Each structure stands twice: as structure tokens, then as C-alpha cells.
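STRUCTURE:
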């Protein structure tokens, strides 16, 4: 079984009819390559794209994930679904250009997802790196905290969790920052969605994991206690009094996991 879905714009840029294998062996600038997965940037018809290919995880990995109570990531399907679903929730992300999969065997299934390249972007991690030495304006910091809290809240309210919700996975078009500040709203694009999970309701452990990842990855950018409290209020949409009393157990779990990540980053 072979399935290939391409947008009209991307299809028009192809020099010929591509087979499934043509997409799997595309060449370009490799950004990440691990066993069974490769991410690279390529040009097609004058436009930049990213392709993430999956070449099968094997039964051993499937059984390992299941034994630990996790659904295994079998290919590009999760990222494909997330890219389609996030805009419906008001969360900005990549623009889909294509998706394909081949095979029925879950351990050997091959797949790919293609997105338009997000050029002229900077990760939130890089953007905030100099904040301890050169603090941002109060307005800018508040707008960014508001947007990150909004994204996390929308994911969790709709049964989604990211599993790698670090600030490096938020991208911003820095050149547009004056316009964002004038409007009072910042656009952040959420990336690296291949481990996204979908349920009717996001379980507590996965909400803790996501929020702790945000907390851990922002520990060294100079956020104050007031900034952290602002995030808590915006994420929960409750009063601080309620969060610090009725929901204090949740935030203690978040702090504990974030501290463990800080002590041992490979834990995530």
C-alpha cells in the first residue's frame, strides 16, 4: 500500500512525477539523522522545504514503548496530523506540503512529511539567551509569556501533548517583532511535532511533562518569580490564589520534574 498526498503548489514545483522512493532519497542539507529518521532541507522550484523521513522502527522499539505505557511513534503520521490540527486550535505551526507512507507492517512502514521551510526564524531559546545580560522590555517579556502559556493551554485543553515542549521548539520571525509589539500579540510557530499525542483528554502526567519542559528550558533566561506566577495564571486561566491552593500539587510536580531535568538534561 502506497499513499502520497501533495499540495497543489508543491506538486507544480516538482520537475516530474515523483515516486514514493524519490521522496525518501531526496538530498539536501541534513539537520538531524538518527536511527530510522532523517530531517533535511531541500529546494524545489525556487522554494525551500523540509522533509522528515521515517524508515521503520522495528518490533523491538514497538514492544519497548508499549512496555513502558507509551504508544510507539511509527512514522510521520503524528506530525502530519498535528500540522493539520494545530491551526484549528489557533496554534501556529509549519505549513504542510506533502505526506506519504508505504507498507502495512507497523515495524517496517516507511513514511515522510514535507513542510514549507520557515526561513528567517529564530528559536525562542536563542532569542532569549542574552536576557540575563540584556533584559528585554517588560512588554515584550509579558507578550512572550502570554503566547507560550496560551499554546500550552490550548494543547492540553484539547487532548494534545507535545512531549518535547522546550522553548527551542518555538520559532519567531524576529524581523516582524516591531509589528508584533504594535499589535500587542506575538506569533510563535511550534515545531518538532513527531512525538505529539492525541487523546480526548490530556492525562496529568503528560501535562506535567510539557509544563516542566517549558520551565526547565527557561530556567537560565532570567525570569523572575513574578514571571513564573504570570505563566501559572495564564496557563490555568484561574486566579493565583486558586492555583497556589487547590492546584498546588500540580505545580509541585512540575517543579520537581524541571529540577530533575536541570540536574540531568538527558532525562527528557
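SEQUENCE:
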Amino acid at each position: 500500500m502506497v499513499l502520497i498526498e501533495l499540495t497543489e503548489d508543491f506538486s507544480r514545483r516538482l520537475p516530474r512525477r515523483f515516486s514514493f522512493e524519490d521522496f525518501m532519497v531526496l538530498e539536501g542539507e541534513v539537520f538531524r539523522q538518527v536511527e530510522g529518521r532523517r530531517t533535511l532541507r531541500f529546494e524545489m522550484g525556487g522554494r525551500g522545504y523540509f522533509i522528515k523521513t521515517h524508515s521503520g522502527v522495528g518490533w523491538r522499539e514497538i514492544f519497548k514503548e508499549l512496555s513502558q505505557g507509551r504508544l510507539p511513534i511509527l512514522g510521520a503520521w503524528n506530525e502530519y496530523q498535528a500540522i493539520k490540527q494545530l491551526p484549528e486550535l489557533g496554534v501556529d505551526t509549519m505549513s504542510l506540503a506533502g505526506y506519504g507512507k508505504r507498507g502495512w507492517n507497523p515495524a517496517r512502514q516507511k513514511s515522510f512529511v514535507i513542510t514549507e521551510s520557515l526561513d528567517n526564524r529564530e528559536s525562542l531559546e536563542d532569542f532569549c539567551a542574552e536576557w540575563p545580560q540584556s533584559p528585554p522590555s517588560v512588554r515584550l517579556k509579558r507578550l512572550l509569556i502570554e503566547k507560550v502559556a496560551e499554546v500550552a493551554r490550548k494543547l492540553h485543553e484539547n487532548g494534545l501533548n507535545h512531549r518535547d515542549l522546550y522553548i527551542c521548539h518555538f520559532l519567531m520571525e524576529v524581523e516582524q517583532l516591531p509589528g508584533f509589539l504594535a499589535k500587542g500579540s506575538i506569533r510563535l510557530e511550534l515545531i518538532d511535532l513527531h512525538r505529539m499525542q492525541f487523546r480526548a483528554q490530556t492525562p496529568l502526567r503528560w501535562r506535567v511533562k510539557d509544563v516542566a519542559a517549558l520551565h526547565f528550558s527557561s530556567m537560565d533566561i532570567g525570569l523572575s518569580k513574578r514571571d513564573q506566577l504570570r505563566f501559572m495564571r495564564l496557563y490555568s486561566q484561574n486566579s493565583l490564589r486558586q492555583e497556589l491552593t487547590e492546584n498546588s500539587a500540580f505545580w509541585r510536580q512540575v517543579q520537581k520534574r524541571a529540577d530533575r531535568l536541570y540536574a540531568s538534561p538527558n532525562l527528557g
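REMARK: The chain has two domains: 2-116, 122-267.
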